[in-house]
Amino acid sequence: MTTPIPDENKVTYNFLGRSGIKVANISLGCATFGDVTWGWPGQTNEEASHQIINRYVEWGGNFLDTADMYALGKSEAILGKWLETQARDKFVIATKCGQTMGTEQNVNNVGLSRRHITASIDNSLKRLHTDFVDLYQIHIWDDGTTVEETLRTLDDLVRAGKVRYIGLSNVTGWQLQKMVDTSERFGLNSVVSLQQQYSLASRDSELEVFQVCKTYGIGVLPWSPLKGGLLTGKVKRGVKPTEGRLASVAASTAKVSQAAPDWKSFDDKTFDIVDTVEAIAKKRGRSIPQVALRWLLQKDIVPSVIIGAKTLAQLDDNMLAANGWSLTREEMSQLDDVSSPNRPYPYDMVFSLNADRVNPRANNFYVQSLAN
Fold this sequence. Notes:
NAD(P)_OxRdtase_dom_sf, oxidoreductase, AKR_Detox_Biosynth, oxidoreductase activity, 13% strand, alpha/beta, single chain
């Protein structure tokens, strides 16, 4: 039997970018739902996945994120079976397209062409047992398709009622700017969110990509907020990990992902970050993941942080970051300083010379400058 959740600890709700829809400040990522054979360790079956979703809802959660390629469609199918028993209008469902499903030999079964996007949304809607998705996101930039073709197709899906809002994921600064400019030039539905890897151990997107987000009111949805398990405190300086995704990478010759890089690549700065998070966690009587997640939740540009959970205990621990406490200004500064990304030229020059030139009215949307 699960423990009742006090109202003061339940999630809060934020607008998703410049859209008029509100989402829980912690989103439940569904990448762990489905068959383990698709390549990630620690997957959960349908029964366990539904228990995790139900517990997330008890926390007040309304924002569930998946993708067609997660477990090659099984993640969407598991979520869809659960959604069949729910009041659809209570939940914000997000999914993605663009990567290969790997289910057949078809050179057109990948990318952001009109053909692949339209086929992908229809298949996702069938698996999700719904007539529409609230947020439809391209999973990664596609060099093989023009931006206009991709964005006009997504705009058509909004007009057709299959999609409510458009989001992006895994792009560079110039790619995001090009998509924003193209949408404005042709009067298309605008991008409301960017799902990007973001954590205390991965802050490079602050240099360029998030500057575009700040200017145009695009909400950032961090994925891998605990850096594949690094920011849980389980990985120690100089010690080979023995559990979690990092352990599976260390024990195999599998291709290393950005979410869970080779453990041997972590330098002293990486573990200085972990040590600082751990010190604050001990001082505040919190877990290390809660502090790492809370740092993200207090970034103005972030409306919701995407977490993954394999057990109810793991979910409950992470959800305790949602509400009822805050990191102090001094603690935020400590974490900002120890995890500050290297600023190569011209970022070092631009940020330093603009430190006292912050003008809230200069852009469409204002968030405190990185220079501060």
